[in-house]
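Protocol step 4 of 6: record predicted structures for both targets in the notebook before any analysis. Target 1:
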Amino acid sequence: MAFYQFTTYQKLPINVEDIWNFIASPLNLKEITPPHLGFQVTNNALVEKMYPGMIITYKVSPLFGIKLNWMTEITHVKELEYFVDEQRIGPYAMWHHQHKIESIKSGVLMTDIVTYQPPWGFIGALANRFLIKNELNAIFEFRKIALEKRFGKYPF
């Protein structure tokens, strides 16, 4: 079965502490997720800051409005530098998402590296080519715009 890797970058005109405080809170996920996905965190007692071993559960509608359960675990956290979430239950055969931040001139650079494997073998490979890859691009483009609205646009 094929697996794929998707990498995206974003510069923001804020400091590492401010972006970390925002992205390290599962309570902010809905704000940076496109509304058409019907994203809803279903954990009842989420804490403000993530930690290794934290389980986050969601409802999400990635295709045709069909609601799916998704469970991720925060597997690694290095305060002010990176965290990793991995799917435990959900729409992918495998999902590993690295969120990195680093200080740069006049702001921060955020790097997301998503390594994933679609379900359904050959059919999943076709779905990736025509649907999944494009949907991931759209999701991260939405997120870029949402973060720019919240924190401002990087000057150059």
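Target 2:
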Amino acid sequence: MSRAVEESNRAMLRARDAMDRSYAQPLDIPALARIAHVSEAHFIRTFRATFGETPHRYLQRRRVERAMALLVETDRDVTDICYAVGFGSLGTFSRTFRQIVGASPSDFRRRRTAPVNVPSCFAKAWTRPSSFG
């Protein structure tokens, strides 16, 4: 790998790390391009070539991933979660969530009955009806 490619990858990683840290904040291409020390157009092209998706799509996916965790781990209202993860409107949040996850936020929460981060064999036993009547 050439030195130029390594420098470009590091710049894109700096910007992606900033997106991971500040996903709930308003982030725009000019600010991210400044972090990467490149022009806006070059940033968008290079980010997509490096990570396989545009910066906007990456940020949306990151926000949806965090929303999924909040839907399962908390009882917070879907609207609260929408704004907490950085979406500006409930409609955009719901549409984007459905595109990425395949279900609405409410349906996703309803279907996730097993605890997160447990072995699947335990989760299946945990969600199985009890025979102790």
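Step 5 preliminary note on target 2. DSSP finds eight helices and no strands in the chain. The first helix runs from residue 3 to 21.
Proceed to step 6 after PI sign-off.
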